UniProtKB/TrEMBL annotation:
<dbReference type="InterPro" id="IPR023393">
    <property type="entry name" value="START-like_dom_sf"/>
</dbReference>
<protein>
    <recommendedName>
        <fullName>Activator of Hsp90 ATPase homologue 1/2-like C-terminal domain-containing protein</fullName>
    </recommendedName>
</protein>
<feature type="domain" description="Activator of Hsp90 ATPase homologue 1/2-like C-terminal">
    <location>
        <begin position="14"/>
        <end position="125"/>
    </location>
</feature>
<dbReference type="Pfam" id="PF08327">
    <property type="entry name" value="AHSA1"/>
</dbReference>
<dbReference type="InterPro" id="IPR013538">
    <property type="entry name" value="ASHA1/2-like_C"/>
</dbReference>
<comment type="similarity">
    <text>Belongs to the AHA1 family.</text>
</comment>
Amino acid sequence: MTDIEIDQFIAREPAAVWRALTEPELLARWWATGDIKPVVGHRFTLDMGSWGQQPCEVLEVEEGRLLSFTFAEGSLDTTITWRLEPEGAGTRLFLRHAGFAADSPALKGMGNGWPALIRRIEPALA
């Protein structure tokens, strides 16, 4: 396995979850600071603390439904894809973080870290 896949229900409407993924102030509340914009070709960095500034580039955007960007170009060279689907009064959020080397420490570390990070989205929107 070289990908991380997570399916998480968030009790907030898709527009709010989309904002948590694409607005720098909200993204910083639950994950990392960075100048993300949902614009294909936009290049930005995410501050991963002791792991440094990670360069990224937006690859695909479907407003309110899908966001895909490269992550850690030049080191991990992985791709993060978020997909949002309305579900009742909330949102089903799907994460696919793809492109890890099989059995790599990064795959294991981020595989263990993503679930806790995603659980921080809903409180960040309060």
